[in-house]
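Issue 218. Parser rejects a valid record. Input:
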Amino acid sequence: MEVGLQGSETTTPGRKFQSAVTGSARKVKDNAADWHNLILKWDRMNDEGSTMANKIVNLGFNKSSQKEMQVMMADQDTSASSNSENAFENSRELEEECDKLLSVVDKMTRIVSKMEKLVSSEKGIIDLETFQYGTGGRQTPLFQTWPTSQFADVSSKLYEAYKQELTLKQAILQELAHTTNPDLSMVYLSCWLYQPYTDDRAKLLLEGLLLETGHRPI
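Output the parser choked on:
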């Protein structure tokens, strides 16, 4: 499986190297490519969701301001009617953006589900090698230096990071439209955008995986 790399350049493993990879090595290499592609999809969803979350916050502030104006202008029928129409339109837009953000989180949930399957795949490879080579496992590395168990360990760590991030996203989705505190809203937006659970450690794990399997040049 070829994998497009981030940045201005796209690099794929050489054909000679690709054709020589079979069995467990082929599966591990394909899994590494899947990790890369799933995380790219996640990052795109995160960017889309961040834009929607900002709209939700702004619409929520507008809704709160319009409610205050309705109270102040309740004795002015014309202005009150106009404000009611604006409030209705604002509520409709807010609901639409919330539905869009829900759709993004649903897609992220499916991505994490696929990540979980990759972890199961790596553990299955370890079980197979234990059956083939005994409890000590394979004596020579599949690629460069990593024992087979390290691929499963990296996959598990990546999965746990994105699983935690998904839980945070789900919590933000539930709270964002109902928050009237501007400072708290900014915290939610910052957490969504900067993803505290998928920090530099997760990026290093992915880069190490791609380097070891030949998807990145050394």
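Fixed in the parser; the record now loads. The helical segments are 15-20, 23-72, 77-133, 148-176, 182-194, 200-212.
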